[in-house]
Amino acid sequence: MRSAADFAAQSETKKAGVNVDIEQKLTHQAFLNREASISHLDYERENAFFKCMQDGDTEGVQRLYEPLGTSEMGTLSDNPLRNLQYHLIITVALLTRSCIEGGMEMEEAYNLSDIYIRSIDKAGSEDEIRMLHRELVNDYAQRMQIIRKRNRYPRAIAVCMDYIYDNLHTKLTLKELADAAGLSVSYLSKLFRNEVGMTVMEYITRKRIEAAGNMLRYSEFSCLAIADYLCFSSESHFIQVFRKYTGYTPKRYREAFFRVRK
Questions:
Q1: Could you say which of 19, 26, 99, 233 is the most buried, measured as most Cβ atoms within 10 Å of its Cβ?
Q2: CB atoms within 10 A of CB 99
Q3: What are the backbone angles phi and psi of residue 2, rounded to the nearest 5°?
Q4: CATH code for the domain of 248
Q5: For residues 110 and 70, is the Cβ–Cβ distance under 8 A?
Q6: 159 contacts: CB under 8 Å, gap ≥ 6
C-alpha cells in the first residue's frame, strides 16, 4: 500500500503542473540505473568535445571521441539498432547547433544534418551506425577546421574562397574573383599566394579534384559527366589532373572507394 507521504507527494506534484506518470517513470528509471550502476556520459567531457568541434580542433575531437554503445549511454529503445539510431540522430542535432555557433553557414549545417539523418534512417546494422558515427564526427570536425582557418584569412581571401566554393561548376577567371573580392588582379594573386601558400588557380584545381572525388565516391555520374560539370577541358585532361593529385585514375578511385566509409 502507498503511504500518506506518497499521496502527499503526488498531490504536490499535481499542484505544480507536473505529469505524474512521467514523474513516476523518472523515479523508477533513476532507481534502475542506480541498481545497475548505469550513468550517462560525463557532462563536462561532452561540453569539452563540442567545444573542440566548434574550434576545429580535430586532435581534441579525436581525444574526446566516445564510440556509440558504451555503458554510459542511456537506453532510448529496447531495439539495439534503433537505440543507436536515436542516439546518433541526437548527436547530429547537437553537432549541427555547435557548428553553426562556431561559424558554419546555417544552410550548409542543416543540409549536412539532413544528409546524415537520412543515412542513419536507412542503416541496417549496428556496425553501419557505428561507422556512420565515426564518419560524420570526422566530417564535421574537418569542415570546422577549414572554416576556422578560413576565418583567419583576410576578408578578401575568405570572400574569394567562398566564391570559388559556390562556382566550381563554372569557368572561373582571376578577373571575376578579383571583382568579387574588391581587389585588382595583381594584388589578389599576390595576397592569395602569401596567405594560402598556393596560387588562386592551384587552389581552384584542388577544390575541383576534391569535388570530383566526392562525386566518384557518392554518385554514379560518369567520368565524362564529372569532367564536364567541373569545367575540365576534356575527359582526358580530367583523368590526367585527377591522377596527379590523388595517385589514382578516376576509374580506379571509384573501384576502391565507391560508397566506402572511412
A1: 99
A2: 25
A3: -85, 145
A4: 1.10.10.60
A5: no
A6: 180, 181, 182
Amino acid at 183: L
Q: Let me know: does 49 contact 64? Beta carbons within 8 Å.
A: yes
pTM of the entire structure? 0.54
Domain with 238, as residue range(s), is: 155-257
pLDDT digits (tens, 9 = 90+) for 155-193: 899 889 889 988 999 999 999 999 999 999 999 999 999
Over residues 85-107, the mean pLDDT reads: 91
Q: What is the amino acid identity at position 72?
A: E
Q: State in Å, rounded, how far the first CA of the chain is from the last one.
A: 57
Among 200, 253, 260, smallest CA distance to 226 is for 253
Q: CB neighbours of 235 closer than 8 A, spacing ≥ 6?
A: 223, 224, 227
CA distance 252 to 208: 18
Q: Are residues 201 and 146 in the same domain?
A: no
Reduce the DSSP state of residue 153 to 3 states and report it.
coil
SS3 190: helix
Residue length of the chain:
262
The grid cell for 4 is: 500518506
In one-letter notation, the amino acid at residue 213 is: G
- When divided into structural domains, the chain yields a total of 2
The rounded distance, in Å, linking the Cα atoms of 250 and 243 is 7
**231 has pLDDT over 60:** yes
What stretches of the chain adopt beta strand conformation (E)? none
Residue 147 CB: number of other CB atoms within 10 A?
19
Task: Assess if residue 25 is contained within a domain.
Answer: no
DSSP state, 92? H
**What digits encode the pLDDT tens for the residues 3-24?**
555 545 555 545 455 566 656 6
Q: Is 193 in the same domain as 124? A: no
